[in-house]
Amino acid sequence: MSTEEEIKEVFGHIKNLMxxxxxxxxxxxxVSKEMLGYMEREVSEVPPYPGQxxxxxxxxGLREVLGDCKRCKLHKSRKKLVFGEGSPxxxxxxxxxxxxxxxxxxxxxxxxxxxxxxxxxxxxxxxLTREDVYICNVVKCRPPGNRDPERDExxxxxxxxxxxxxxxxxxxICTLGRISTQELLKREIKITQxxxxxxxxxxxxxxxxxxxxxxxxxxxxxxxxKGQVWEDVKKIMRHLGLExxxxx
Length: 248
Ligand code: URA
Hints:
By secondary structure, the chain is α/β, with parallel strands linked by helices. It is 47% helix and 10% strand.
């Protein structure tokens, strides 16, 4: 890890700590004015994400560069590449794992059964529309049989996801499930332990929660899992300044 990346990571941790304090109604940890000034100066001196500057700075441009992508073996079995969709000015980006059967056919993210649940969370839970947010995946082509994406597939696709997020620069990211959380945080995680906790990616607050497909696959635990996702979503809503109804 370069010194710049280390500095960013340390400040990311401090930010998360401050947000966690705010969340539970506590005063922020005692950080002196001098320290705050130092943090701001240091952060602004760090150049924006080296390596990403070679990519177009619009979503349309990035889609064009991707073209009829054959950068990994998933292109052989995919029907349609699923780039992602939503607002280029979204305040919130959802990141899933990879397209499933329905998404592969439609060329759109989260349109199958898990997608219907995600749509309900966005619309009924958050009071937003799919067009208000941005929805994308770690890999843009369907892994055969819905297996987990493999390392070489993820590595080929991740620079495009990074640039999508870099272009949008949302105020928050919600990772859905273990794979997307792990890939953005660059460490192995257990989703049961990590969900509901603020992290950061590219200096953007990141909240992991369960993948909606996990809830769909576990009907006997539906109530419990949905309750946990709702707790996580409420944290995101508070972070974005969206109204959370009293009894929710
Ligand atoms: N699951 C995902 O991770 N992404 C989709 O787009 C659909 C299902």
